[in-house]
Q: What sequence folds into this?
C-alpha cells in the first residue's frame, strides 16, 4: 500500500511498537517469511517474566520460527491462503462480511483509502481488503502520526468486525503450524487494539461533550 508521504512525525514508543506489530502481521500475511524475517523472529529478545496473552504469543512465535524453514513455510502459506482452487482461508473483508469477494466492504474501503491518500502498490493485484493490506494501512497511519481518532475510525470500519474472527479461523486451520503462532499473536494484538482504541474514542467523545 502506497501513501502520500509527509515529514516523519514524532510518535510515542507505544505507538511505534503498535506500528511495528501491524507491519509484521502484514508481512507474514502477505507472503511466507523469507530467511531474514524468519531469523529475526527466531532471535527475538523477549522478557521471559512477562505474562499475558501477548507475551505468550510472542514466545510461541519465536519458538515456531526456530523450528521452521522457508521451504516448509512456502508450502504452509500456499495451503492456507492460495490452494489449488482456494486456500483454507479467504483473507478478505468482503468474504468475511458478505460471503463473496469484491462486495460493498471493498467499495467503502476504497473510498476511505482515497480520502486518506492511500493507493494500492503496483506489485500487488489482490483487492485492497486483504487482511495484510489493512494491517499495512494501520501501520502507516500510526507512523504518519494520524490521530488516535482517525486510527479508531479506520480500525472500526474495516478491521474490528472481522479481524479477530479471521485469526480465530487461522488458529483452527488444518495446515496452520507456524501460522498458528501468527494467528495467536494476531488474536492477542487485535483484542488489545479493540480495547485501547475504544478507550481513546470514548476519551475524545468525553472531552467533546464536556467542552
A:
Amino acid at each position: 500500500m502506497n501513501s502520500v508521504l509527509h515529514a516523519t512525525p514524532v510518535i510515542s514508543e507505544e505507538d511505534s511498537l503498535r506500528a511495528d506489530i501491524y507491519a509484521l502481521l502484514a508481512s507474514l500475511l502477505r507472503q511466507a517469511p523469507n530467511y531474514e524475517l524468519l531469523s529475526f523472529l527466531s532471535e527475538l529478545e523477549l522478557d521471559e517474566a512477562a505474562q499475558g496473552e501477548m507475551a505468550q504469543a510472542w514466545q510461541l512465535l519465536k519458538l515456531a520460527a526456530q523450528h521452521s524453514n522457508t521451504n516448509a513455510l512456502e508450502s504452509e502459506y500456499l495451503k492456507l491462503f492460495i490452494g489449488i482452487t482456494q486456500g483454507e482461508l479467504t483473507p478478505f473483508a468482503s468474504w468475511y462480511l458478505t460471503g463473496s469477494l469484491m462486495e460493498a466492504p471493498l467499495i467503502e474501503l476504497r473510498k476511505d483509502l482515497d480520502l486518506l491518500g492511500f493507493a494500492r502498490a503496483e506489485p500487488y493485484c489482490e483487492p485492497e481488503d486483504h487482511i495484510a493490506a489493512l494491517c499495512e494501512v494501520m501501520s502507516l497511519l500510526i507512523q504518519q502520526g494520524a490521530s488516535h481518532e482517525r486510527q479508531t475510525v479506520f480500525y472500526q470500519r474495516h478491521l474490528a468486525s472481522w479481524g479477530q474472527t479471521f485469526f480465530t479461523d487461522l488458529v483452527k486451520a488444518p495446515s496452520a503450524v507456524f501460522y498458528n503462532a501468527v494467528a495467536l499473536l494476531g488474536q492477542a494484538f487485535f483484542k488489545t487494539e479493540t480495547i485501547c482504541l475504544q478507550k481513546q474514542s470514548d476519551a475524545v467523545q468525553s472531552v467533546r461533550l464536556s467542552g
Q: What stands out?
A: The CA atoms of residues 75 and 85 lie 15 Å apart. Residues 206-211 have pLDDT under 50 and may be disordered. DSSP finds ten helices and two strands in the chain.
